[in-house]
Each structure stands twice: as C-alpha cells, then as structure tokens.
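FW: tagging you since you asked about this chain on Friday. Here's the raw sequence from the shared folder, copied in full. Didn't touch anything.
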Amino acid sequence: AAALQRLREVFDIEELPPDVLPRKKPPQFMVDLFNKVADANGITRAPGLLQGDVVRSFEDRVHVDHHHFYFDISAMEKGEQMLKAEFRVFKLKRTHRSRRSDVQHFCKVEVYELLKHENKPQKKHLIASRLLSLYAEGWEVFNVTQTVSKWVRNSSSNHGFWITTTRVSSNGMEHDVVTFAKSQGALQESRNALLVLFTNSNKRRSHSFVPSATSSSSASMSRRPRAASSPLTACHRRELYVDFHAIGWSGWIIHPSGYNAFYCRGSCIFPLGEGLNATNHATVQSIVYTLKLSQEVSMPCCVPDELKSLNLLYFDDKQNVVLKNYKDMVATRCGCH
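HL: got it, structure written out here
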C-alpha cells in the first residue's frame, strides 16, 4: 500500500479516478496530441513538442442550447500556470443550398463570453469573429486564453461561451445559418465541443521513478529473467516494465498500457571502459578502491546518467482527459558515478 501511494505521488494523482474505460471514449484531438508528442510507450519523441507539461481537455456540458457552450474547469490545480486556452467546435455542413442568385457563400461567426447566467437578452462580450464557408464542415479553433485566465482566477465569472452565426442575403440578415455539433449519443461524441488548456504544473517532481538495482521485483514491475552471471558484470542497462494493468490503473489510463522504465545494474570496477560513461571522479574512485588505498572508499555506483520523460494520457477523477508529461522517468543510459 505504501509503495502504491508513493507511485501515486510520482504520477501526481491525488484521488484515484474511477474506471471508465473502455466505456468512455477520449476526444480524438487528445489521442492525436499524445501520438504527436510520444511513441507507443509514452516516451517523449523530442523536446519542445508540447507547450507546458500538462494539457487538460474539458467537454461541453450544455446539450440542449445550440448557442451556449459551458465547461467546468474546476479540475485545474492551485499554482497551475495557464499558457494557452483553445475553444474547439465542430461546424456542421449546411444541408440545403440557397438559390443560385444568392452568391453569398460565407457566414459570420461570433464567439462571446457570457457575462451573466440565464439573462435574456444575454449580456455578453465579443471574444472573436471570423468568416466561414457555409458548406464546409470541420473543426474551428478559437484562442480564448484571456477569457479563461479570468475564469481560472475567479470561477464564479465562468458562464460559458455563446456563438452566433449570421449572413447577409437578398432577404436581409439571416441568423443561425449554420450549427455546431453537440454531443447527442455516440454518433456525435467525437465531435463534441472542447475547451483545451495548455498549462505548466509548476510542481517540482524531484522524485522520478527509475528504480535502482536494489528495488524489489513485483507483479507490476517485471524484470526479464537473467542468466547466471558473475557478480562482476559491468554496469549496464536492464529492462524493467511497469504494467498499469497489474497495478490496477488500466481503467482510467488511456495510453500507454505500461512502459519500460529500465534500471542500471553491474559493477564499476577499474578499468572503466568507454561504454561505462564514467566521470573522471568515478575513474579516480575506482582506482583508489582497486588499490585499496582507503578502507572507507566504495566502488563507484552504476546509475542512470541519461533520462527521458514519459507522457500519460488519462481520465482524471472528473472524467476530463488529461495529457501530462513527467520528467526523468525512463533510463536511456547507465554510467558509473
């Protein structure tokens, strides 16, 4: 129990989320983002692909009104610094075409912040506007960083967004000429509106999870069986697979299903070859140890000297999908230090 509690601290999980997989589907945008920044094992492909170290997605909570979009962002943590906020809505294709004499194929889309709840007419503040083709369909993305920053500071000011669509035709001004997808069962779930926040957790996760050679093996962290070898095998990297299914976390972690943390094992006895990535200090220490110049000096240690970050895509305890980057989680190289 203490070990699993420690593991939760490493992964920054305060409350264990409920098991929602495979029943609940994550937004495709978040799955695509994970695949862009990480390989199948969750290892970061290249530094700088992600803005910040946390991406939170919130789904629209209003299913009736086609103008109103509301997102509960209370899962944001204290001290989390918001870098960017995107309001993502899927524009549906207009089904009936106008008369040919009507050459106006564009409509004006305006996104407002609602200033008060359930006011008619609505008190609202214009955030963004653009022209869109009437007959195209697809995702529209609006930068709403300033507005959402205000909501983060003061949650009671969050009344959601309001969208209007208008166009000028021969009959004058037409309203509600196009609609944006709302969640209506499984068919439209993948097109449900999203609020995506890119943030910095500002937490010093000093406790990385790369087990040492002395860690005990368990069902959730399996090592490959090793051949009988002499105790003087040189320092090298060995496999250590962390299986989220065995830990009991597979009901809410979307990707990856587990990952290879690797660990370092072996001796650092003189002479230290080039492949042992030894520091000058470790080389001197190994010589002093070999020559027995001091009874107190031990052999240098075989430890990770190069680490990569891990990315986790998961449902949080409020069933929002989160992509989080954890530094120094995978040993990519071992050395004598």
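FW: The longest helix spans residues 280-290.
HL: agreed, and Helices lie at 2-10, 28-37, 145-153, 186-189, 244-247, 280-290.
FW: great, closing this out.
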